[in-house]
Amino acid sequence: MKFRTIFTLILTLLIGGCSDNQLEEGTLIVGTSGDNPPFEFYDTSTQQDLKGFDIDLTQLIGAKLGRKVVFKDMDFNSLIPSLLSKRIDIIVAALTHTPERAKRVAFSNPYLTSVPVVVIPVSSKAKDMHSLMGLKIGVQIGTTHEQTLKKLKEKLGSLKIVGMNKLTEMAQEIKTGRIDGLITEMDNGVVLVKKNKDWRYISLDEFKEPYCLAMRKDDPFMVRMNEVLKELQDSGELDKLKLKWFGQNNGA
Amino acid sequence: MKLHFAELIPSLPFIAKGALVVLQYAGISVSLGFVLGSVLAILRTLENSSLLKGFAIAYVSIFRGTPLLLQLSLAYFAIPQLFGYQISAFEAGVLSFSLNSAAYVSEAIRGGLQAVDKGQMEAGLSLGLPWWTVMRYIVLPQAYRNCLPSLVNEVIGLIKETSLLSVIMEMDLLRRANIVAAEKYLYFEPLLFVGVIYYGLTFILSQLADYFERKLKKHD
Do B175 and A75 touch (CB under 8 A)? Predict the structure, then answer.
């Protein structure tokens, strides 16, 4: 019997420790994927809270609307299913507008433009977009860069596309030499090149894409959301955020 | 080889918190899975009810025959859409982990039950004891002892499978490692660290099981 008492006690403690916090009325539940600096990431060394461009933007939006903002962090691939199953109200996760995604969700007006870059070692022979021909390029599965690479492949005639799960994984694969380069956002590319002195990047300006907020198609709130984005744009607050997180040259 | 563990040190507490998440999910799911698995195993030994037996067989076949990741995603994303119930990440996680682990545990216990001599049950019944009493106090305890190593196997498996939890918005160990990897642009240093934590957890568990097994052996 003693064993059973201890067992019950442990079970109660475990269950007690994980009650779901009730959300107050009018809270804006925001889905994001905190492994994409500088858009959304965790400062794991100190405060352990989400931060980044998208996070600041969402807080501004929340303040404008007078709604409290709660972030839900998850795997990038879970974002759209979570939105559709009403677990979150909006996606703010450096999500680019694509026709495929637009079939399932409604996009706001763009708040930022994404410029893809290919990061390669300094020693690589590639000089510009056209000289990437025939190289083995890593791409994060499920991102729009996959489509970008496919289009680039059509344009160049030959390109080997290697699908991977994480940006960090791809960076590792350049070091081990299994891929010749990787495709990512300009902003990630800048940081990668800063961290790895023997790397550089080639930007693919003609494949620019808009970043948007995503909501459910039947959500009437989208109209208001676009108004708020416009207000932030006009008041210069959006530009201030860009300056804070990307410096002057990027994220135009 | 160049490793950058120094950069990782401030983030270690963040990653280590994931161990609590792992213990929470694995602890509860294994307990529930153990109870349900025992029931399923007993159902399969029933000779006179083909319906209940058939249910147990079908259950094990389905839950063992589909990936846990799929069961987890279905529990979390399909239940709200189909039944209108907003299942929380914790409920969905515990539900699918328990149901899945019940299937494996029931097979382990069934093995344990088969290893108990048939004469034990017959002897009990012929003494006039009710079937359930014989099962509960004579056959099951022996079966549990027989299958202890396979049960430990299952718990260890479950601990490692909690790494799937990130698809349902839970910050498990692996997700935390990936978050730190993204923040610091370091790939395998955080992974090595969670590897050590996973190994530590399973090592402690298997030591406990060894100790328990030795204690039980004394009664042989």
Answer: yes
